[in-house]
């Protein structure tokens, strides 16, 4: 067709028909599609995990953390099959306020136990704040410089989605997978701000509380319940001109512990000072932990505590599923805001609103 600019009305250049050019893309180049990762079967996951394949382990943990129902179903199958291979580890909870020196300490603790006892170490975390901050700082690899490159360690940050109960359950399930993969030492890290300690305490054999010597009133800031949970309290940063202060704090803690009833384990919690940064007093902490494990293995408390924990997690899992099933029910989800408003405006009492919703939910189940 004649180009419009060749019209007589145009006085400019004549535009010729173009010449077809070959494509600049090599026609023989086969575009390789990114291979979609095949979904492994539960048996394949288990086989990989039991062989100690860390990539398989990581992928299985990702399944555990997934909120998709099909992933959850597969994850549960993998966990179930890994159970017979699990349990052969010592599980240690490590808690402390931000800045107490958890990551510095976990790095040196980890290297110490790996050097002293061989084996493999997994570092997991429970961070209740991670839901809000979208991503967890706990268990972050960059915070544990040496461990993160150690061939015998596996570091996994806190699962980030869901309620504390949900996050804690996922960590508990991850422990099982790690144990099946041959990790015989498990650290579970958490921040010392309250409820998350209870969750960690309910999945470990030894609960270690990291404290700092402060202004002399360090005991006031710490909740009684948290101190009661501790099997050992360690005062960090006992170095330089902080040594005396740390010793004094240790004395305060020791005195305070005397006021509590004797723990069920029969073990008297110890208080030690150390410096994670300068690597002072680390061996003493681990001697204490091993002494505790020996002690409770002999008196039967080790088994008893684990059995109690298994029972606790059965109920926690039931509670979590019931709660999810209720709140995710579409009818409930759509009615909830209305009921909430009625309660806020005083048009309905909290009890009658709750009853109405629950009745509706249970009627839907029939
Ligand atoms: P986290 O928030 O509990 O994980 O604490 P970090 O391990 O990140 O430590 C917080 C700060 O305390 C960092 O600046 C560390 O260098 C410092 N720190 C940790 N351990 C020690 C210690 O033993 N002595 C001294 N002086 N500083 C330490």
From TrEMBL:
The keyword Hydrolase applies. The gene is meaB. One of its GO terms (molecular function) is hydrolase activity. Keywords: Hydrolase. Its EC number is 3.6.5.-. It comes from Bacteroides mediterraneensis. It is an enzyme of class 3 (hydrolase). Gene3D superfamilies: 1.10.287.130, 1.20.5.170, P-loop containing nucleotide triphosphate hydrolases. PANTHER family: METHYLMALONIC ACIDURIA TYPE A PROTEIN, MITOCHONDRIAL (PTHR23408:SF3), METHYLMALONYL-COA MUTASE (PTHR23408). Pfam families: MeaB (PF03308). Belongs to the SIMIBI class G3E GTPase family. ArgK/MeaB subfamily. This is Methylmalonyl Co-A mutase-associated GTPase MeaB.
